[in-house]
Design goal:
The protein is mostly helical. It is built from 18 helices and two strands. It has a two-stranded antiparallel ribbon with strand order 1-2. The two termini are 27 Å apart.
C-alpha cells in the first residue's frame, strides 16, 4: 500500500512539473557549488606546486653555486653566501611546510580561505613566518564562498520546505483528504508515503549528483580515508535533509492552512539557519572576545627590541644553558651577529610565549564553546561536520600547526650548532636538510566528531517527529 501511495503521489507531482523545477534549481546550485569548491582546491594545489617548484629551483642553484664558491670561481657578499648557515637557514635555503587540500576538499571550503596552508620555515622565531597573511578579496572572506556545503546547509532546506509545506493541508483544502482516508489506510501512512517519496527524490539529487561530480573530478575513491569520508558525507546530508522533512510533518500535523504552514516553515528556516548561528556568534564574541592581533604583534616587537639591546648578556646566558654549543677554547670566541641573533630569538620567544599562550587559549576557548553549542542549530552541526569531512575544519588546521612547530624545531636544531661552530654548509648537507611531510588526521578521529554531529541532528528530529505522528492520529479531516 505504501508503495502504491508513493507511485500515485509521483504522478500527481509530475502533473504540475514540481519535480522538474526542484531538480533544475537544486542541480544548478550543486553544479555551481561543486565548481567553486573544485576551483578553490585547484588554486591551493597550484599555489603549493609553484612554491615547491621555486624551492627546488633555488636549492638546485645553491647546489651548483657551493662548489664554485669553494673553488673561488664565483664571488658573493656574505649575506648571499649559501655556505654560511646563518643566511642559508634564515633566508637563502628556507623550505616549505604545506598542508595540501584533502581529497574531499571540494565538498566544503569552510574556513580554509582564512587559514594559511603553507609556511616557509626558517631559523627565525616562529612568529616571523606564522603571522603572514594571504592577500585575498575581503568580500570573499566576509561572505564566505558558495560551495556544496552552502547548497546543503542553506538552500536544500528551502527546497525541501517548498516541496512539503502542504503535505496534508493541500488535500484537506481540495476536499480529497476524506476520500483518501476512506480507503484502508491511515493518515500517518499517507503522510509518510508523501514525505518518503519527496525525500528519496531530493536527497538522491543532493547526494548522488555531487558524488558523481567528485568522482568525475578525479578523486581517487580507493585512497585511504576517502571512501569513509564520502559515505559519512552522504549520511550527514541525508540526516540533515530528513530533519527538515520531519519539521514539515510537524507543522502539517498542526492542521493549519497551507499559507500558514509556509509562513511557519519559512520562519523556522530563518531561525535555525540564520538567527541562531548569528546569536551564537554574538554569545561567543561576548564570552571570549577575539584576541587582538595588533597587541600580539606589538608585544613581539617590544620583546624583540628589548632582547636586541641585551644581546651580549643574553648570549652569555644562552651558552650557560647550552654549554655544548660554546666555542672551543683557543678558537675565535668573539660573538658575531649570527650568534647574537640566536640568543636574541631565544629570549624573544621566551618573553612572548605567555602572550601567545593567552592568544591561543582564547581562540581554543572560542572553538570549544562553538563545539559545545553547535547542537542548538542543526545548520551549525551540519556545517561543522561538512568541514571535518572536507578537511577544512579548525581541528585539521591545528593538527597542521603542531606539525609545523615540530618541523621548525628540527630545522633550528640542524642549523644552530653549525652557526655557533661557524661551520660552513657543504653540498652533502643539502641532502641532510630536515624535510616536511604533512600527516593527515586519522579517519577515526574525524568519524567520531562527525558521528556526534549526526546524533545531534537526528535526535532532535526524532523528538519532534514522534509527537507529530501521534497528533496526526487525531487530525481533523474536515473543518
Amino acid at each position: 500500500m505504501t508503495l502504491r501511495l508513493m507511485l500515485f503521489e509521483w504522478r500527481n507531482l509530475c502533473g504540475d512539473r514540481t519535480p522538474l523545477l526542484i531538480a533544475l534549481l537544486l542541480g544548478l546550485s550543486i553544479v555551481y557549488g561543486a565548481a567553486n569548491g573544485s576551483r578553490w582546491v585547484w588554486f591551493q594545489r597550484e599555489t603549493i606546486a609553484a612554491a615547491v617548484g621555486e624551492e627546488h629551483e633555488r636549492l638546485a642553484g645553491i647546489r651548483n653555486d657551493i662548489p664554485k664558491l669553494d673553488a673561488g670561481e664565483k664571488k658573493v657578499t656574505p649575506f648571499t653566501d649559501p655556505r654560511l648557515p646563518q643566511y642559508f637557514g634564515r633566508s637563502l635555503g628556507v623550505k616549505l611546510a604545506a598542508m595540501p587540500p584533502a581529497a574531499t576538499g571540494a565538498l566544503s571550503i569552510g574556513q580554509s580561505d582564512l587559514y594559511p596552508y603553507y609556511f616557509k620555515i626558517s631559523t627565525n622565531s616562529k612568529e616571523t613566518f606564522a603571522n603572514n597573511d594571504e592577500i585575498e578579496n575581503p568580500v570573499h572572506l566576509l561572505a564566505g564562498r558558495f560551495d556544496l556545503a552552502f547548497v546543503i546547509v542553506y538552500l536544500l532546506p528551502l527546497m525541501i520546505l517548498a516541496f512539503s509545506y502542504n503535505l496534508v493541508s493541500a488535500e484537506k483544502e481540495a476536499g480529497t483528504l476524506a476520500l483518501t482516508l476512506s480507503q484502508p489506510v491511515t493518515l500517518n501512512r499517507v503522510v509518510l508515503a508523501k514525505a518518503g517519496l519527496r525525500a528519496l527524490f531530493i536527497l538522491a539529487l543532493a547526494t548522488l549528483v555531487p558524488l558523481a561530480g567528485v568522482v568525475a573530478g578525479g578523486v581517487d575513491v580507493a585512497a585511504e580515508g576517502v571512501l569513509p569520508r564520502l559515505l559519512l558525507w552522504i549520511v550527514v546530508t541525508a540526516v540533515y535533509g530528513l530533519f527538515w522533512f520531519g519539521l514539515a510533518i510537524v507543522v502539517n500535523a498542526a492542521g493549519k492552512s497551507s499559507a500558514t504552514n509556509a509562513i511557519v516553515l519559512a520562519s523556522a528556516w530563518l531561525l535555525i539557519v540564520l538567527l541562531i548561528p548569528a546569536i551564537l556568534n554574538l554569545a561567543v564574541n561576548s564570552a571570549y572576545p577575539v584576541p587582538s592581533r595588533v597587541e600580539m604583534i606589538q608585544a613581539i616587537r617590544t620583546a624583540g627590541d628589548e632582547a636586541t639591546r641585551q644581546g651580549s648578556q643574553l648570549l652569555a646566558r644562552y651558552l650557560e644553558d647550552h654549554p655544548e654549543l660554546a666555542p672551543a677554547r683557543g678558537g675565535d670566541s668573539a660573538p658575531d651577529f649570527a650568534t647574537l641573533l640566536i640568543a636574541v630569538n631565544d629570549a624573544t620567544e621566551r618573553k612572548v610565549r605567555p602572550v601567545l599562550e593567552d592568544f591561543e587559549r582564547q581562540v581554543a576557548s572560542r572553538q570549544a564553546m562553538v563545539d559545545d553549542l553547535r547542537y542548538v542549530s542543526p545548520a551549525i552541526t551540519a556545517q561543522l561536520a561538512f568541514n571535518d569531512l572536507a578537511g577544512s575544519s579548525s581541528q585539521r588546521y591545528r593538527h597542521f600547526l603542531s606539525q609545523v612547530d615540530d618541523y621548525h624545531l628540527r630545522w633550528r636544531e640542524f642549523f644552530v650548532p653549525r652557526i655557533m661552530a661557524r661551520q660552513k654548509i657543504a653540498v652533502a648537507d643539502l641532502d641532510r636538510l630536515p624535510a616536511f611531510e604533512f600527516r593527515e588526521e586519522e579517519t577515526g578521529a574525524v568519524a567520531r566528531r562527525v558521528q556526534a554531529g549526526v546524533l545531534g541532528i537526528l535526535l532532535p528530529g526524532l523528538a519532534l517527529l514522534v509527537p507529530a505522528l501521534q497528533r496526526l492520529r487525531r487530525y481533523r479531516v474536515a473543518g
